[in-house]
Design a protein that fits this description.
12 helices; 5-stranded mixed beta sheet; 21% strand; alpha/beta; CbiD-like; 369 residues
Length: 369
Amino acid sequence: MNSGEIRSGYTLPVFACAAAIAALHWLHNKQDMTSVDVNLIHPAETVEIPIEQVSGIAHGALAITRSDPGDNLDLTRNTPIWALVELRENQEQAIVIQGGEGIGKLRATKEAAIYSYAQQLIQENLTQLLQPGEKITVTIILPEGRQLAERTSNAAFGVVEGLSLLGTSGIAQPLSAPGQLEAFREELQAKSHFDCLVFCIGENGLDLATQMGIDSDRLVKTANWLGPLLVEAAVQQIKAILLFGYHGKLIKLAGGIFHTHHHLADGRREILTAYAANGGLPTQVLQTLFTSSTTEAALKYLREVDAQEGSNWVNTVYTAIAHSIDRRAQEYIFKHSTRQLQVGSVLFDRDRQIIVKSEIGSTLLAHLC
């Protein structure tokens, strides 16, 4: 693949960290900086990030940079990212990281949605810059975060009032660019010595899979390229693949859609309604499912029906969907490669709670954990 075809950028945590470095530098030297070096940690490289503005403010300093995700369909492109760094004396930790305006909050705990990689990145880069005995509070602010969040699926994963600083790497790969498929294939080929791999469409799946104890070396981020990568796994003679993902994405496979970007195909409510109808659900319930705003809303409604009527529709419908995902994935692989590959699926909801595990998925998950 010609590396000039697509351009990688950096994830939001990198720009938040860069702004914090610039603000801390101003506190120490009272000098503007036009750029700073950030150690990405993952991958192990140092990159230069431009700084737009930096100034002293009250008992601290504020620095601003702008997001550059590379050649990717990313709504955070060019959004400003602020970091306010304030000197503190009466706090236990040397560095306290908190979310300001535009940083989302976890619905369940009200904590700022600043995940482990962002925390590690800021802690490690700033710790080495602290003066002896110095303690600081770092507040990350996304002025446009609340507005941008309305155009994302963050709420479906329990993040409200803003964007999350989510990611496991500092590099923002252009996942939507066709050329990126070749990079995904190369990553998959490098892991072909494993008998079983786990396909995760996005960061939420990667994060949850890691929390559940799955070896991170077995995880493959697929973005929306599930079909081609399933075929590539078969070509590489991998024995089994566990599809581990949000039900609002994986449900498309039950309808025969193997590139899951919504710009190409959707049909999620239609697929859910079709499987519900085949399962014998009443007409009134089917009509409500079909007109639901999202698959998450439809799932919530089904759970309410089960609670009120003592039925078991969620299990009935989603078990059928998971079984179909496995079957259709295997059929897709055989059609495009004439090879056989065992496929299992695990679907979770917006709160990262498992909805259903297919029979094969349950077996594979037990093996992986």
